[in-house]
Every structure is written in structure tokens, then in C-alpha cells.
């Protein structure tokens, strides 16, 4: 096979389930064109979030974008979310086909 | 009628299991489903009662409970800011919890009254739905000021179309449109199983409350005092309002309970978005860790006793 | 018997809440559980009825409804390809939806008849299970042609051992083997709660239907016309078939409803795999967004009225 | 009373659907919720019975069933190590399964007795909870030896505060404190729906058992023989213990069933942590794939027959 | 400790829940020896898939394999799935112990 | 924006749900400061784990730490878990803000 994969950046965010609607709205405002969300639980500096009920549930969001966009979004998260919300975000270098999609 | 209502026993069981660190955990989807059931059932029951009476007297009642909610929120804010020395955001968010209401507490109170065959006004369910909302808006205004460019449209949308209010009002509309006869066919699910479902729900509430103990320890004595004193004050405001509105003893008890109760679903979610700098652990430790158990274990019988005294005196 | 059946009101409530973009959302596991319950309950009730009568007359009835399903699919395909100018894949997939049946519509119809004490043949549940399948196979043949190397074995397996058919047939087998007396012990769950569970299920259906509005707007007027006209045509075919089989008014109404109903569970899943190039949004916008609400709000009473006329004329 | 109890039919339906590789799958949250319901309901029923009688006679009974559990585990270990040629870990883990008990089997047995109006001692539920535990500790000691630095504290915590034991004991405490009158308000959920919920649960059990067939084939004939022989031996031990304790025919049947049953929830989880080198597929193939179906299909009537004979002979 | 990790490639696929059985069958046919699946929701060029019911639910599949195998499978996905299904797939370089397992 | 992302290592573990409590305790003992958990199903050398009930469910754990810590934990997993549990674990190089957090 003769595949040409292209580099993109995957931004993964783990945060409180309660911010899902507003965070997804923000992501779209910041130029993200697609995302995937899954339910999660976890533990971090703000203590255990064991998903026993909605207030203590986490979500895990993934969005594939250009390196530039990913850094911009990460910067926005730091500015608007890091201080007040249980949140972790990180970047991973990945490869995709159909680069125009991301 | 012994004090040991199974519904309360289920709560205590969950609490003890949680404190002993049992591995007991109900599936999240079960907890959500039980919530949906309780909200719909309360709405249906209220709506079916409304079907048999005129709606016009509702309007002053709605206005009165809005004022009641606003007043509670402002008083709570004053207490938390002043004697409590809370920061602005924490005080505003916590005040909003106490100005709003708790559906679970309301459900326990209706079950308590039903077990004693004490009637109450059917519109209590609609007042419950109404009272969820104003404290949220007041709390946000207290935290941010009203001058700031808050998106009140989005907030209003969220407050009125949140899950709780939607299910309560939807249930009431269905109950009102179908009437007691129409509901016979769904009675087997929504009315006959109500207390069993409430028991299961309170088991989970006990588990959730048990997790507040750590936060409570960190938050200190003032929060505990506030979590016990505020509902008493609010209950008196509720009783006063109920007397002005001419409610029965059952209605007085429920309005006092509603006023005394503190939100732990709708308000935390709304505050988390609108006042993110407030620490949610504080408000929840108060409303879930102190006020909720106090109300269902001791508050409801107390408010009923007060209602009986007041109704006797005023008649 | 007022028109405002709570079951319908729950559907309308879900629809309105969805259209107003309420945050109301039932847990996915609850929706799945309600589906399992309804399928089992319908099967049990049918099976218990079959236990008291001979099974031989079933065979011509099964053959007849298979033909009915095939005929509906072919007619729908013709309409969608010809006047509708649909592409081959979209026409075939949508036709399969309309040639198959909707369990939720059937459940509403049985509740509608039960509320009016109208009896119907117990084997309707088995006909429901049977009618799920042929349209799937015909739809695939229409999309691919029969010459192509389709894996009919796998498709048959999927069609006959899908969740819906399995639960219906399994429920019927249990009901048949246990008989009315055997089922007394599980009646409290499966029969007494049926209508309440159906109401809750329709609340979710209302929410799901509300999400079809966008797709419907994009799909244009022809799809709406088809979604209203096709069930009417199918209902007439169903009534004709029912008359030939000598069904009662209740049976005629149900067979017309089955014919008029369009699948939104089994067929979409099967078509997504077997005819992936078809756009699932189109078929669902038709079957869920137009035909399902039409059938439960207006279709069922209409088909019953037609059944009464025809039964009167033919007797 | 025909043999074709719907509860058993639901199990067979699940088994057949699973063996035919149907796509039928119940949501995981539903399975968990049904388990919670059954454990609580069994506990409540037992507790309400205890409320009307003295608790002192319980102490020798508790001691007796602990010994019974220990004895069963040791015998099973001997059989598996000796004739079975199992490795130490596998033998110990499997023995622990058979020395412990299965709540689902117990539930089927109580339903079987209830359908025949056979009374039994209310404390059977507490014995059920007690009997879950000793086999776990013995199994671990057999696998590791007692000299090793096992964390018995953590193990005890896990054994006694696992979900099953917590819910059984919590339900009993509630039932005991509320008494038969107090439970009237939650009866509609926990008692009237018991058999329907058990049926749904057994449908899922059938599906789970059907997945054991592959493992069973790999494990060979000895495991099948052990899975049939061990419950018979245990049932005799249980009957003997019950006679010593002076139980009624219903109590004898239940104690025999408890002894004959093998755990498939609490023990597998505990062994997976404490004896990780044991292959869980072996123990589960035996307890779920052979012993569970054997007990509910043939064992319970057999143990009841034996109990009747023994009770007749000893009186 | 003296660990020698070995490079492998992680292929992550997000797609419609309805294809789970047939896609997993395909993956095994294409030589994949193990995979992990989780439920998800999301949004992309084919619109929002919010898991309100089965038709609109997503799944997220991960499979660790050699770079070569991962590229082959990605190629097959492009050929057989990209056109007709809501799907996103990407490659990440990872490290494992026990290289013989993947 | 002027973001300085820092390299960290993401350790991902897929294993049997039944070990969740004890494995999380172990992770903390081994120095992990935060983790995220989600439910999963899958297939591997120990057969299909389809989450039909708790015994056959998987979980997927992610923890961000320093490369060193990640390798240490991976080594511990190999020593204490690989032989007896259905388990897969792998390392991914990622980038975060707030390096002091991980
Ligand atoms: N080091 C970590 N690795 C992986 N996930 C983490 C880590 N720290 C925190 N998280 C996740 O992010 C959520 C919020 O973290 P925190 O803001 O630190 O409380 C936690 O509930 C975890 O789910
Ligand atoms: N840029 C993206 N980043 C992460 N996930 C995506 C992205 N685009 C799409 N997805 C996911 O893949 C699914 C199918 O995408 P699509 O085919 O673009 O509709 C969506 O429902 C999302 O869950
Ligand atoms: N190659 C793989 N890629 C992704 N996940 C895997 C792989 N192999 C195994 N798994 C996951 O790890 C679990 C345990 O694997 P195993 O120990 O191989 O049975 C499986 O149930 C899968 O969820
Ligand atoms: Na209040
Ligand atoms: Na049809
Ligand atoms: Na046993």
C-alpha cells in the first residue's frame, strides 16, 4: 500500500462533566472542527472524582487539529479553565490520512 | 406510625455503608433513572390535583415564593459574607444553594405527610419547580454584579430548561391534561412504586452524603452552624409566607420544608459554570453534608409541629 | 375515554422539551432497558394468548404478512425511485424501513385498544416479529441486486437473531409455555407496569423525534408527503390482508397499524451495514420524524375507524 | 404448580439465545441494578421476619453455617487436588467458589418455595450473607498458607463490606427496624415485583452461562463431574446441619440449596485479587456453567424432596 | 530497573457504534491480534453523534500493532469505511514491553 | 500566544475491571499523582472481555508522569501484574503545560 499519512496534533482534555456543554461550545468557537467525548473518572490535585454522581464525574475530550490550533486551544484552556476547574490537558503528535479534514 | 420510616432507614444505611467504606456503589444510570422517575411522579401528582381546581390563585403564590427564594438567598449571602467571612464567590454560590430547593427533601416530606394522611395543596409541585430558579439568578448577580455582561439569556435558558424544572413542569402538564382518570393507566408505575423508588434513591443519597464528611471537616464549624441554622430561619420564612397564602397544615409544612431545603443538583451545576471561582466542595458540604440529613431526619417533623401550632393560632 | 392518553402526552412532552432544546436526556441504559421490557412484555402477552388456542391457523397468517411486508417494500421503492427521484441505495434503504414495522407504534396501538376494551388476536405479537424481517432482505436485494455475492447467511442470522426479534419470540415462547396461570407471578412487573413503562419510553421517543427536525428540513417536501402517504397506503393493504385472514376489528386495527408503521431500530442498523452508501438521516427523518408521530397521534384512531367500517361492511 | 416456572423459562431463553449467538445483550447498568434490587429485597424480607422473633437462637446457627462453609471448602479442595489433579491455586480458588454461596440460586429457591406456599425461617437471609465469607478466607489460606504475610485486615474488609454482604445485611437491618408494617409502603417495589425482576435477572444469567460453554469444553470432564457431584455432597452436608439446627422443611431445603450453590460474584472477585495465579475461567466454568444450571433446574426440587424425607424420618 | 521498551504503533478509530461487530470482524481478518473498545460520542463532518440512542452513538477502538500492520489496516479502513461511515482514524507512536505480543 | 509545553510521558493501562481498586492503590504507592479511568471492553491473548458482566469488563487507566516514573511503574506492572492478569500497557510521549503538576 502507498499511504501518505500527515502529521497532526491530538489535544486530549480531562475535566469535570458539568462543563461539557459550555466547553464544547468554546472549543467550536476556538476553531475546532470535530471532537470525541467519553465518560471517565479519576483523581488529581483536586481530589478523587469517582463519578458516583454527576457532580463528581469527569469527561475525556479528544480533538485532532493542526499543531497551531492545538496550541491556541491549549492556551485558551489555560487562560479560561485551568484556575477554576479540575482539568488536565495534553498534546500528542499523531498521523492521519485526509489532512484537509483536520 | 413509628419514626422508623424505611425511606429514612435506607438513607441511614447508605450513610453507614459509605462511612464504613463499603464497596457498595449503585450504577450511575440507576441514580439518574431514579431521579427522572421521582421528578415525573411528583409533577404528575401535582398536575392531577391542579386539574380539579382553578388556576388563577396560583399567580400570587408564584410571586410569593419567588420573593421567598430571593429573600433567602440575600439573607444567606449576608450571613456568609459577614459572620462567616466567606469570599464573595463562595458566599454567593452557597447562598444560591440555600435560596433554592431540594427535590429529594420535598419527596421525603410528601411521603412523610402521606404516611400520616395529611393533605396538602397540589400546586406545591409547581412551587417546587418555580423555587429552583430565582436563587440561581440572584446568586450569579451577587457574585458578578449586574452591570457585567452576563449572558442572562443563556442563564435563563439553563435555569428554566434544566432537567429538573423540565421534568417537574412536564409531569405537571401531563397530570393536568390527563386528570386523575387519565393517569389510572400509569398509576401502577408512577404512584404505587413511588415510595420504594424514593427509598432506593435515598440509599444512594446516603452514600453521596457520606463522601461529604472529609470536606465538612476541612470547612470548619461555621459551615455546620450555618447548615443547621439557615434551614430553621428559612423554614420560619416559609411558614410566614404559607400563612399569608392561607395554606393548610400540610401545605405549610411543605412550604417550610421547601424553604429550609438547599439544592444539590440544579444549583451546583449552574454555579460551576457561572461562578467557577467558587469552591463547589464548600456549598455541597453544607447543603448535602449538613442540611439535607438535618431536614429529613429532624426538620420535617419539626416544621410540621410548627405548622400545626401556627395554623391553630391563626384559625 | 378522552383523547389525552398520558402515553401520548409523554411523547408530546418529550417532543416539546427537545424542540425547546431542554437539557433533558434520559440515560442510555434506561432507554435500552425500557426497550427490553416492552419487547418481552408484548411477547409474553401474545404467547399467553396463544397457549389457549390451536397453532395451525398461524401458518397462512405468517405467509400473508410476509407477502404484505414484501409488497410494501416494493411499492415504497417504486414511489421513492420514481416520483421521489431517490438514488437506488437511499430508495432501497428507506423502502426497507417502511416495509418493516415499529414496535413502539404497535405498543401504543395495543394500549389504545386496551383502554377501549377492544379485544385482538394474541398472535399479533408473532406477526409483529415476523414482519420485522422480510423488508430487510428485500431492501438489500433492491440495493445490491441478488446476483452479487451478499452473505445471506450472515444477514439472515442478523435479521432473525437481532435483539428485537429474539426478545419478542423468546417472550412468546415463555408466555406460551407458562400459560396465563404461570405468568401470574411475573404479572406485577410485565403487565401491570406496561403502560407506565410505555409512557416513559415515549418520552424518550419524543426527544429523539425532536432531533429529526433538522434532517427533515434538509430532506424536503417529498419525504414529508411520503411519510404521510405511505402509511395510509400500507394501512389499506394491512386492512385488506386482515379481512382475508378473517381478523376481528382489534386485529384489523393492529395489522393496519403494523403495516403503516416504519422501523426505526432493526432496519436502520441492518441497512447501515448492508447498504452503507445509503444516507441513514433520510430514512430516519421519514420514519421517525414524520411517520411515527403521524401514526400514534392520528393514524391509530383512523385505522380503527376504517377497521370498524370494513368489518361492518364485510359481515 | 407446573414445572414450567416462568423464572426458569427466562433462564432457558437466555441460555438458548446465547448459544444461538443472538445479538441480545442487556445493558450492564440494568444487570447491576437488578442485582442490587434482589439483594435488598431478600434482605428486607428476611429482616422483617426476624423482627417478630428472638435473635438469640441465631448465634449457634451462625456458628454452624460458618463451619459448614469451611468444611465444604476443605472437601472441595481435597477433591480437586487429589482426583482432579488441579494445581494448588486453581484448586483453592475453585474450592472457595463451592464453599461459598450463590444469591441467584437462593432467590430461585425462595421463589420455588413461595410458589408452593412452603414457609421457611426468616434468618435464612442472614445465613446467606454469613456463608458468603468463610470460604473466601479458607480459600486464600489454602492457596497461600497462613504463614505468609497476607493482609487479612484488607481481606476481611473486602469480604464483609463487599457489595453483596453489605446489601443483604443492610436490607435485613432495615427490614428488622421497620418491621412488616413499616415495609408496607415499599412493598409495591421490593416484594410485588420480586419474581418479575428475578425473571429478568435470570435471562441475563442464561446469557452469561451460555458463554461458559467454550471454557467448559476446554476444562474437561472432571470439572463437569465435580460441578454435579459437589453440590450433591454439599446439599447433604447442608441437610445434616439443618436437621441439627431443627429447621423446617423449607429451611432444610434452603440450607441444602445454599450449601449446594457456588458463588459467581463475590468469590471470583476476591480470588482474582488474592490468588491471581488461579485461572478464573476454570472456577467460573464450574460454578456458572455446570452447578448453577444444575441447581436451579434439578437441584432445588431434589433437595426439597430429600428435606421432606428427612424431616418425616426425624420427626 | 532495566527496561527495554520497543516501538509499536497505536491505531485509534472513532466511528459509529452500529458497525462494531462487523468492524471488529474485519480488524481480525486484517491481522489485528487484540483491541480495546469504549463507548463515546462526538461531532464531526457528519454532524453531532450524541449517543442519545444507539443509532447516534460512537465507539472508540484502539489496537496496538506493528507500524506496517497499522498502515495496512488504516489503508483498508480508507478503502472500505471512510466513504460511507462517520469515522476518524489516526496513528500514534508508542512503546511497549513484550514486543512479541503485538 | 507564547506557550512553553514540556515533555511528559503518558502511561496507558488496559486491564481487568476487578483489579481497579488494588491497582489504583498500587499506582499511588508507586508515586503516581493523578490518573484517569474509563470503562472498556476488548480482546487479547486471554480471550474476549466483552463487559457483559463485571467479571469480563475492562478498564482503561491513563496517568501522566515523568518518563522515569512511567518506566518505573511499567516495570512494576510487568513484575506484579503481567503474568496473572489480562493486561496491556504502553507509553506515549506527550506535552503538557504546568510541568510541576505531573
Ligand atoms: N497525572 C495525571 N494523569 C492522568 N490524569 C490525570 C492526572 N492528574 C489529573 N488527572 C485527571 O484530571 C482530572 C482533574 O485533575 P486535577 O485538576 O488535578 O484534579 C482528574 O480527576 C483526573 O481524571
Ligand atoms: N477533529 C476531530 N477530532 C476528534 N474526533 C473527531 C474529529 N472529527 C470527528 N471526530 C469523531 O469522529 C466521529 C466521526 O467523524 P465524522 O466522520 O467527521 O462525522 C465524530 O462523531 C467524532 O466522534
Ligand atoms: N493489541 C492490542 N491492542 C489494544 N488493546 C489490546 C491489545 N491486546 C490486548 N488488548 C486489551 O488488553 C486486554 C487484555 O489483553 P490480554 O492480556 O492480551 O488478554 C484485552 O481485553 C484488550 O482490551
Ligand atoms: Na431553600
Ligand atoms: Na410497515
Ligand atoms: Na456452597
Offer a few descriptive terms.
A: 102 residues; Alpha-Beta Plaits; 24% helix; elongated; B: 315 residues; mainly alpha; Na+/H+ antiporter like fold; 16 helices; binds adenosine monophosphate; binds sodium ion
Task: Outline the structure in words.
The complex is a heterohexamer, with three copies of chain A (102 residues) and three copies of chain B (315 residues). With 102 residues, chain A is α+β, with helices and mostly antiparallel strands. Chain A has a single domain (6-95), classed as Alpha-Beta Plaits, CATH 3.30.70.120. Chain A has helices at 20-29, 67-80, and strands at 6-16, 35-44, 47-49, 58-65, 87-96. Chain A is elongated and about 50 Å long. The model of chain A has no long low-confidence stretch (mean pLDDT 95). Chain B is mostly helical. Chain B contains 16 helices and no strands. In chain B, helix 3 runs parallel beside helix 7, helix 7 (134-144) packs parallel to helix 15 (266-274) and helix 13 (221-244) runs antiparallel to helix 14 (249-260). The mean pLDDT of chain B is 93. Classes of the chains: A alpha+beta (102), B mainly alpha (315). The interface between B and D is medium-sized, with 31 and 31 residues. Bound molecules: adenosine monophosphate (3 copies) and sodium ion (3 copies). One adenosine monophosphate sits between chains A (14, 42-46, 49, 58, 86-88) and F (33-36, 62-64, 102).
What is the arithmetic mean of pLDDT of chain A? 95
Rounded to the nearest angstrom, the distance between the terminal CA atoms of chain B is: 27 Å
Mind telling me which CATH architecture of chain A this is?
2-Layer Sandwich
Q: Determine the fraction of residues in helical runs of chain A and give it as a percent range.
A: 10-25%
Rg estimate of chain A, integer Å:
15 Å
* Tally of alpha and pi helices of chain B: 16
Order of helices and strands of chain B: HHHHHHHHHHHHHHHH
Number of strands of chain A: 5
CATH class of chain A: Alpha Beta
Unreliable segments of 5+ consecutive residues of chain B: none
- Please state the average pLDDT score of chain B: 93
What strand line-up does the widest sheet of chain A have?
Answer: 3-2-4-1-5
**Global geometry of chain A:** elongated
Estimated share of beta-strand residues of chain B = under 5%
CATH topology (level 3) name of chain B: Na+/H+ antiporter like fold
Number of strands of chain B: 0
Which compounds are bound in this model?
Answer: adenosine monophosphate, sodium ion
Structural class of chain B: mainly alpha
Amino acid at each position: 500500500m502507498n499511504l501518505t499519512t500527515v502529521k497532526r496534533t491530538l489535544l486530549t482534555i480531562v475535566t469535570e462533566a458539568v462543563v461539557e456543554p459550555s466547553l464544547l461550545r468554546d472549543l467550536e468557537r476556538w476553531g475546532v472542527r470535530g471532537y470525541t467525548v467519553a465518560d471517565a473518572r479519576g483523581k488529581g490535585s483536586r481530589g478523587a472524582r469517582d463519578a458516583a454522581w454527576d457532580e463528581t464525574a469527569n469527561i475525556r475530550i479528544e480533538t485532532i487539529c493542526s499543531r497551531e490550533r492545538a496550541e491556541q486551544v491549549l492556551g485558551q484552556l489555560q487562560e479560561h479553565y485551568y484556575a477554576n476547574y479540575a482539568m488536565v490537558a495534553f498534546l500528542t503528535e499523531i498521523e492521519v490520512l485526509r489532512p484537509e479534514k483536520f | 406510625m413509628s419514626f422508623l420510616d424505611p425511606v429514612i432507614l435506607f438513607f441511614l444505611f447508605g450513610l453507614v455503608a459509605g462511612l464504613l467504606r463499603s464497596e457498595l456503589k449503585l450504577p450511575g444510570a440507576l441514580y439518574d433513572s431514579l431521579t427522572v422517575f421521582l421528578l415525573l411522579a411528583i409533577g404528575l401528582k401535582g398536575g392531577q390535583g391542579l386539574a380539579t381546581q382553578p388556576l388563577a390563585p396560583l399567580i400570587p403564590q408564584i410571586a410569593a415564593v419567588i420573593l421567598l427564594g430571593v429573600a433567602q438567598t440575600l439573607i444567606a449571602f449576608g450571613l456568609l459574607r459577614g459572620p462567616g467571612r466567606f469570599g464573595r464567590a463562595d458566599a454567593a454560590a452557597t447562598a444560591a444553594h440555600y435560596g433554592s430547593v431540594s427535590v429529594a427533601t420535598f419527596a421525603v416530606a410528601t411521603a412523610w405527610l402521606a404516611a400520616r394522611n395529611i393533605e396538602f395543596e397540589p400546586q406545591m409541585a409547581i412551587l417546587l419547580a418555580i423555587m429552583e430558579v430565582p436563587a440561581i439568578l440572584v446568586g450569579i448577580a451577587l457574585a458578578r454584579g449586574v452591570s457585567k455582561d452576563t449572558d442572562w439569556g443563556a442563564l435563563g435558558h439553563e435555569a428554566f430548561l434544566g432537567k429538573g424544572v423540565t421534568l417537574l413542569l412536564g409531569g405537571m402538564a401531563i397530570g393536568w391534561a390527563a386528570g386523575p382518570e387519565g393517569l389510572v393507566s400509569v398509576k401502577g408505575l408512577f404512584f404505587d412504586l413511588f415510595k420504594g423508588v424514593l427509598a432506593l434513591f435515598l440509599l444512594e443519597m446516603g452514600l453521596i452524603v457520606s463522601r461529604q464528611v472529609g470536606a465538612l471537616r476541612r470547612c470548619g464549624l461555621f459551615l455546620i452552624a450555618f447548615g443547621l441554622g439557615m434551614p430553621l430561619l428559612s423554614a420560619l420564612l416559609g411558614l410566614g409566607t404559607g400563612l399569608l397564602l392561607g395554606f393548610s397544615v400540610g401545605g405549610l409544612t411543605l412550604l417550610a420544608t421547601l424553604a429550609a431545603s438547599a439544592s444539590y443538583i440544579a444549583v451546583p451545576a449552574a454555579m460551576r459554570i457561572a461562578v467557577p471561582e467558587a469552591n463547589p466542595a464548600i456549598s455541597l458540604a453544607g447543603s448535602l453534608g449538613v442540611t439535607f440529613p438535618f431536614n429529613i431526619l429532624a426538620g420535617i417533623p419539626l416544621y410540621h409541629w410548627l405548622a400545626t401550632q401556627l395554623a391553630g393560632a391563626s384559625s
